[in-house]
Amino acid sequence: MISADNLKLTFGKGTPLENPALRGMSLTVNQGEFVTVIGSNGAGKSTFLNALAGEVIVDSGRIEVDGQDVTRLPTHKRARRVARVFQDPLAGTCEGLSIEENLALAIKRGQRRGLTSAVKRSYMERFRAALAKLNLGLESRLGDKMGLLSGGQRQAVSLLMASLTPSSILLLDEHTAALDPKTAAFVLELTQDIIAEQKLTALMVTHSMKQALEVGDRTVMLHQGQVVFDIAGPERKGLEVKDLLDLFEKQRGLEVEDDSLLLG
Amino acid sequence: MPGLLQPCERPLMLSQIAFFGAVETGLIYGLVAFGIYISFRVLDFPDLTVDGSFPLGAAVAAVLIIAGWNPWLATGMAIVAGMAAGAVTALLNVKLGILNLLASILTMIALYSVNLRVMGGPNVPLLMQDTVVTWWDSLLPPEYYFLAPVLLFVVVTAIVLVLLWRFMKSEIGLSMRATGANPRMARAQGIATGAMVVLGVALSNGLVGLAGALVAQSQGAADVTMGVGVIVIGLASLIGGEAVISPTSVLRALLACVVGAIIYRLAIAFALNADVLGLGAQDLNLITAILVTLAIVLPGFRTRVQARMTRNKA
Question: Could you tell me the domains of chain A?
């Protein structure tokens, strides 16, 4: 479970470029919930995820993971509970390291590391089994450098790495946005499978309203650093992109100007 | 090349002593290249501290040996001193947010004063002192005295190479490699990237301090100016080695450091030895700069030529 309470964060405070990214963002994600997050550019989606992960520290407010206050903790101290997949397929893995070395880094996420060999023989079976599920033939290429893989393959492995050890929340930051449509569909399907199979708690930022409604079991829309609506259950079932837009306009009395929200 | 162990009558290119002298220095600079591999390649942290930590290692070892310490213990303290210098650079960068290159220049400048303080003057001679080299001298027949440091440095370099290789394959070593390659990903995996930078830069300068201590003992003196250009020589060794042995794995990268350092030293020795070229010791830095440039440019040139060849075939 993760809860954010009244998060506020302003970039470039006291400068002409002052930008309030979070203006009282509150959201609680319950155990086993799969929440999709939408919002136009500048709504604060990425900042919110970065705040949850610890990449940025909020000015005020409180973040709890499993009841523990993590508001001031840096990223690496939250990593045990918070798993993450980035938008950039190249960002989640190290291209100079082999597939098995990348997985070995992930299997120790948030745990103490010592001087024993990083890639242990006892991991191999687990790595192979996990990679085999991707159906990309990677289970026989454990020693290959990550850089030899395509963007889609690397994103699939990133997803695998994020789910290799248990987490309290999995943060997905538009992780299919930089992929071609076919690969994006593959990675999205994989995401749903993994989340369902391991009963993960997940927060997925997406740029596509359609995707936000089709995937997961709750949808949250952000606007100007706040949650403007939060919809789940039967109410969400019958909803279409058009309804979502109407809802948004009604809530805010605003026209949606960002075309990219309508596409996809 | 002269016959390896027979006294040679007419040195064709390099005298035996010059040859082994080059190998000896090459092996020590292999240690420097290991250090530079850790900072420049593993951590992506351009670190010039080495120009100060090299004479620091020499100074600490020399002063302690003069004070009657066991030379091995004194050499160990030189490693510790080098690590401390590296840690200062890394902390300036990680904790105070000073640009890495600038942080290392600050430490390097500061070390010049520190080294003068440590030695109480610009140099400390080690003549007639028991050093790590003298024990090896006694193992060999007197006419092969010049081989003693070579043997010692082969052993030291080999041990360091194996230890470093195992370390880079360990959980902490892998975390360090991830920190340099992709810090954002490393943090997301729970790696304290700041601590890894401190550890890595400290380790790097510890190795350079070791090299400085060994040079002081094999040459019989520590001198405050002996660190000038160590960074360039180390980089030349690293880049030259990578041009010969492509560093596709950690082991190959480490071997490249040693091979590069020896090739570099031999190349310098040949260049200075060949009378036709008319070069002298004063040209050393110019030759180094030319060699480094060639080592950087040649591999790229080779791929360009290959690309042209395949294009012509098609």
Answer: 2-81+167-261 (3.40.50.300)
In this complex, the residue of B167, B174, B184 whose CB is nearest that of residue A105 is B174
Identity of the residue numbered B138: S
Q: Crossing angle of helices B250-273/B230-244, nearest 10°?
A: 110
| Interchain contact, B185 vs A53, CB within 8 Å | no
Select from B170, B182, B186 the Cβ nearest to the Cβ of A115.
B170
Residue B12 CA to residue B15 CA, distance in Å, equals 8
Structure tokens at B217: 């003992």
Q: Would you state the pLDDT for residue B272?
A: 77
Spans of all domains in chain B: 23-313
pLDDT tens digits along B36-71 = 999 999 999 999 999 999 999 999 999 999 999 999
| Record: fold of B23-313 | ABC transporter involved in vitamin B12 uptake, BtuC (1.10.3470)
Q: Is the ipTM of this complex over 0.85?
A: yes
**What was the pLDDT predicted at A264?**
43
* Low pLDDT (below 50) residues in chain A: 264
Chain B neighbors of A97, CB-CB under 8 A: 174, 177-178, 181
Tell me if residue B139 falls in helix, strand or coil. Answer: coil
Backbone dihedral angles phi then psi of residue B124, each to the nearest 5 degrees: -130, 110
Q: Does B178 touch chain A (CB under 8 A)?
A: yes
